[in-house]
Amino acid sequence: MKSISEAYIARLQESNTIDELGIMKIRYALAVLRNELVKTLLLTGIFALSGQLGPFLLVMFLILPIRLSTGGIHFKDNISCFVFSLGYFLAAICLLPLLALPIQVYWILLGCGILVSGLCPLAPSERRPIKSRKKYLQNKYFSLVYLFFFAVLLLVVIRDEVLVAMNVWALILHSVEMLFLKWYKRKEGHHYV
Length: 193
Known about the structure:
Keywords: Cell membrane, Hydrolase, Membrane, Protease, Quorum sensing, Transmembrane, Transmembrane helix. It comes from Aminipila butyrica. The chain is built from 7 helices and no strands. By secondary structure, it is mainly α. It has 2 domains: 1-49; 53-187, no CATH class. It is globular and about 60 Å long.
């Protein structure tokens, strides 16, 4: 029995509406969506069992647009990706907020995270590179606008200091990831668009 996606692809091939490269892109996109859905469901289950579902969903919802527009570390297999994501969210939601820093320190960390995320070059996946300067600048512009929105949410809207801390830590972890990628790609001789 064919999967829904394979049935859809077969229909596209039969109608000759898309070439082989287009089919490969569709297969890749559908595989990424499936893998991300499975990863998200597993993470949701883990955080639901740990009693941290609400904070997890909030942090994921707020950090996802930053991650999608700026990129980050990409792994070759799904297990490594899942373990990294689990570690990332466990650190941001369960471990780092235990430090219980004064709220002023979180504002400073927020500013540092925004500065680093805003200044670091984008880090797209090698399988989905940004091919034009226009697209690069669109993603960069979106990330800067969203970082402003993110800061307003944390400074004005969210009143729970623990939730603010979790989101600030998520941004700091993402910023560290971006700094690492900037260093690594420079060391490897990669250049940005």
